[in-house]
Amino acid sequence: MIFKQFYLESLGHASYLVGSEDTGEALVLDVRRDVETYFAEARSQGLRIRYACDTHQHNDYLSGICELPARTDVQLLAGARAELGYPVRAMDDGEQLDMGEVRFELLHTPGHTPEHVSLLVTDRSRGEEPAILFSGGALLVGDLARPDLLGGEAEARRGAEAFCDTLQRKILPLPDFVEVYPTHVAGSLCGGHIGSRLSTTIGYERRMNAMLSNLASKDEFVGHCMDLTDLPAVPPYWPRMRRLNSEGPPLLGVLADPPPLDLDAFERAREEGAVVLDCRAPEAFAAHIPGAINVGIGSSFATWAGSVLPYDQDLVLVLDRAEDLWEVCWQLLRIGYPLPKGWLGGGMLAWRTAGKPIEVLPQWTVHELRRALDRRDDLMVLDVRQPAEWSAGHIPGALHLTGAELNRRADELLAGGGRERPIAVICGSGFRSSVAASVLKSHGHPDVAHVLGGMTGWQAEGFPTTAPDDG
Fold first, then answer.
1. What is the DSSP letter of 215?
2. Could you say which of 53, 66, 329, 427 is catalytic?
3. pLDDT digits (tens, 9 = 90+) for 223-267
4. What letter would DSSP give residue 338?
5. Alpha carbon of 31 to those of 17, 36, 237, 248, 343: distances in Å?
6. Rounded distance, CA 408 to CA 414, Å?
7. How far is CA 82 from CA 53, 117, 257, in A?
8. Residue 471 pLDDT greater than 60, yes or no
9. Is residue 66 flagged as an active site residue?
10. Which residue of 23, 162, 250, 454 shows the fewest CB atoms closer than 10 Å?
11. H or E element: which one contains 136?
């Protein structure tokens, strides 16, 4: 059996290619949108992609599953409970697929979503015992995928109850030695405590996964699953991803290369409503084009771009390097955004030297924030970290607002005299606070700064923090 894992840090996503040495066929699981990576791996192994499957209709990214049959003869597989707008071979719980020496058994494993399936893999060249469980979100490294993505409390409770049955009847009866390869891995917002490793085993999770510790009592387990207090905030683009993944993601076709725009063309695009997405680091964004949104290229780019960018407006980019163009494009395409209309040729150097207007975002150290708090009673500290980070300790008197809520509540934040109050935005280190500060400035707040070093620097200096347990 041939096996390859593909890890996307920016989405906390793992996908897989499994190939048969006997037949030269391969199956791809939980397909990301830039599918050329699978074809390249298949070519290097002398394989032909024959099957593809998604364990569930994902919320966190746009699947590339429909791209595969557009390129070659690929049969798409899905659990019988999946409601899909594209042709698939629907497989019942326990149904098997043989691909030479590799046998796949489809298990219906609801909990994270109602239609969720896992694939149990046996390499019959080595024996008749199962070797691998591709668990999707049914079992993660040190965690379970959240059950609350499809609706309110009642829907989440039904998911938690189904999870209990899935674990007791389908997953934990498997032998300890079965390797577990999830779809949601380190960096994913589909869990609150996902471990840093990219795989695990049934035996290790049985002994060490805190989410399984009260599985014997269904009521206790459901109550544990329903405690959503410290789970990451759900980004606003996620419901759109699930809908598109269920309908059948639109095919990418031939992708045009977004062109470099001269100053006149760039300004015309702005005047016609294009959003300026500045992909430089927070330090560089200190001087920027008025109204630009800052999401720096990095491991959190996709989540934050999807959280703060409108999906129904054109984008134009500001880049540090022309070589960064397609990294940004693919990160946007993976979360359902169209290609940008272009990028600023010559970058900020061309903009500055042409005498174009520049807006400044003040950047404070934690020492400057501390002095400002001592000096000004009206300073608002806005903490944009995730709930678990906030609960672990925050600046006394700070206001908590996650990035997922930022655009929806920015105007509310500025109402009632808030527009006159200076705001210092803080996160863990300075990346997210620059994004949030740029959003506030784009909404018209005249006096906003972001804190470089964030709460990491604040706590390193021993400055005061508080937490809910402190009263």
1. T
2. 427
3. 988 888 888 999 999 999 999 999 999 999 999 999 999 999 999
4. P
5. 9, 11, 19, 13, 29
6. 12
7. 11, 9, 35
8. no
9. no
10. 250
11. strand 132-136
